[in-house]
Amino acid sequence: MEEQRLLSAYKRLQLGPTPFSSASVVRHATDEGSPDPRLSFSRAYSISLSPHLIYARSNLVPALVSNKVYRQLEFLAVGSWWIYNAKAAHQEETFEGTNKIGRDQGGFLRKIPGSREDVFADKSIDLRSTRSLMKILKFAADPEAYPAVIGEHGDRFFPEFLAWQYKIDAKLQAPLQALTLAPDPPSKILVAYAVPRLHRHLTSIGIFGPGFGAVVPKWGGLAEIAQVACRAGAVGGGVYVLKKGIESIDVTTQASVSPTDTEGTAHPQSTVKLQGGDEVKARWVVGTHSTLQGSSSKTTKQQTRIVEITHLTAVVSSPLISLFPPPAEGSPPPASIVVVLHPGSVELPRSVNIAEVPAIYLIIHSSDTGECPEGQSPQWLSSAINTFLSAVPNEPAPPDVLWTLTYKQYHSVPISPPSSLRTDSQAQADFESTQQCSVVYLQDLGPSLALEDDVLNDVRAVWERITADDRDRRGAFMQFEDRVGVGVEEDDMY
Question: Which residues pair with 412 in a beta bridge?
């Protein structure tokens, strides 16, 4: 019944421009009933709807280097990962230190050990558990060991695998599950999903600097990367037509020869009708299922399931300095952190089955990202904002929430392969199965809070197909020469 409801909602949204619904914005007022004066003017904020983490091992990193777009981008370090623990009623001590912080009331935040050094430094972990954690971390970091285990145990649930294979109890399973950033309930996370993402997290640490393994773009998340790429494309001859959605796509049955094709090969042509009545003819039309909604030939052999994510973006009245310690000696100041609240640590309605509730992920940025004025913090939470703020120490009172945006987002997620990180060859196979003449469908951006390699793998599969007949460009994916007349200093203007 729930799956049918989500599918129905997703289909209704596909008739519109985006797979979003139930959006609301609240500017919180003070006790006197007037808007909080600490909320600045609107242009002082640049809040991203895609606050994704980019791991150092992400395939996007070498792509940004090879196409030279990195010159116009600035990245900031993601610091510590924290997990919220609800404190028992009889506990009254204040938690402070390198691994644990909190207030006298409510719960506390514990730093998630993300490396072997962190495990040894956490004195709250007993010797037996330390050995177990060291084994799983060593296994997950070995690129030759974990693929064989996925082949044998990939369809097992991750909590069951940790308890059976490594004797890790439920208390220590939660931090490992948190590092996967899985959108599913902990009891439903598969080994095929969790282990590759645990490997990515562990092997990314130290590449860009000591103690951290992920970064975030300054000034606006993934939108900043898209904007810089569009500017580079415009300089290279690309043309952009804004606010013109696609109404229909008609693929002609009679092929024609493109005037730019030196070999005189006939290819199918598409007639794209835009909103407003304009028509464009193209040999190739590329987009996601949510953007190419008007295509009459849209079909796919790939089975999918619908995932509904509830987002809450908030601006709070504190920089939350205590949550941004340097992750290691010599590391740059972090501008982002991750806080995880597992279902058992927050109050839920009695009617809710806790086994069906996913973890709550909080992406917290400092004002160094340029998204809000100094002294404030943008946060991306799915719920439980007050629960988290009550645990932040070194504040006279819990920080105030100044502004919130809530909305739901629907994702169409492939069922097979189960959820493991796909290879380039798998992306090429998916591309071939979804190609309809000259119309090509890419996967929609998934629900993960980390940018998945699938995104660029899909783009590469399309690139290789489109350039298959171009001898000069074949195999040169994301390898662009310097644009004529544009040097480093001019690039910095973008």
Answer: 306
- The answer to whether the Cα torsion of 23, 348, 395, 102 is positive or negative is negative
Contact 113, 144 (CB under 8 A): no
Q: Where are the alpha helices (DSSP H) in 88-214?
A: 116-121, 127-141, 146-153, 158-166, 170-178, 191-204
What digits encode the pLDDT tens for the residues 25-59? 988 865 554 455 578 888 888 888 778 999 999 99
- The two structure tokens encoding residue 18: 């985006």
Q: How many C-alpha atoms does 296 have within 13 Å on its Cβ side?
A: 9
The percentage of residues in the chain with a pLDDT greater than 90, rounded to a whole number, is 20
pTM: 0.83
Q: Please, are residues 211 and 245 in contact by the beta-carbon 8 Å criterion?
A: no
In whole angstroms, what is the distance from residue 189 CA to residue 74 CA?
A: 34
CA angle 121, 178, 448 (to 5 degrees): 140
Distances from the Cα of 289 to the Cα of 10, 168, 286, 415, angstroms:
11, 41, 10, 16
Mean pLDDT of all residues in the chain?
78
